[in-house]
Amino acid sequence: MLGTLLKQWRDRRAMSQEGLAALAGVSARHLSFVETGRAQASRELLLALCRALDVPLRSRNELLLAAGFAPRYHETALDAPQMEQVRQAVHFMLRQQEPYPAIVLDRHWNVVQGNQAMARLLALFMSDADATAAGAPNIMRLTYNPAGLRRWIVNWEETASAYIQWLHRDLLRTGDPQSARLLGELLAYPGVPREWLALDLDASTAPFLAMAFVRDGLRLEFFTTIASLGTPYDITLHELRIECFFPADEHTAGEMRRLGAG
Questions:
Q1: Domain count, the chain
Q2: CB half-sphere exposure, 250, CA atoms < 13 A
Q3: Residue range 8-47, pLDDT digits in tens
């Protein structure tokens, strides 16, 4: 079981036994024996292999369990008492982003939390019933579902192709089955070609992802950034992402300030 998982991660990273062994400081012969089950990996060696393969914390626990070791990384609910300082920090970041939108996303692109500016922005384009029908709270579904934001995003193909590649990279990085199901769901929506998975976003001349919304004569243009919480040792924190929407022109900035004032 452990050998199979290790080989899967090595294949996912397109790394040879020799290359992985060199990075982990072990002989290729010993690594081969571990993968075939002829040798037992120590806890230290296994963690070194995980670091060399850039295995996410959740999957590192799975590898440790497969080798007969206790998990190393905790997964603490965001609403747990010991997460109070983290919740305060996240709340501060969301509040500081006002009057511009910001959301907190989990590993499957579900919206865990958002600021009031995000609620105001969504309310301009969808009712609560529309959002539910379009797949809320998942931001990917809201973007791809024809009943969601897709109708109002002027540059939808550009935005959607970037989002689907982010999700595809998540899948390649983690091998997560739920990410695979979500990716398959998005690819099944009308007008979503599989060729988007092979686009070269690095060839874009823009340094950020731009999004433009239009409804009833109101046009709002944003660019977005996605940040993580650095290098936490808790799985929940390791997987959180914060997406911030910044106005791309003064008109959008003014409209968001006006909405925020009320």
A1: 2
A2: 0
A3: 999 999 999 999 999 999 999 999 999 999 999 999 999 9
pTM of the shown model: 0.87
Contact 212, 221 (CB under 8 A): yes
pLDDT at residue 209 in the model: 82
Question: First CA to last CA across the chain, in angstroms?
Answer: 58
Residue 160's domain comprises 81-261
- Degrees, nearest 5: CA angle 171-232-236: 55
179/247 same-domain check: yes
| φ, ψ at 5 (rounded to 5°) | -65, -45
Cα-to-chain-centroid distance, residue 262: 32
Tell me phi and psi for residue 85, to 5 degrees.
-65, -35
Q: How far apart are CA 191 and CA 196, in angstroms?
A: 11
CA distance 142 to 114: 15
Among the candidates 37, 66, 95, a domain finishes at 66
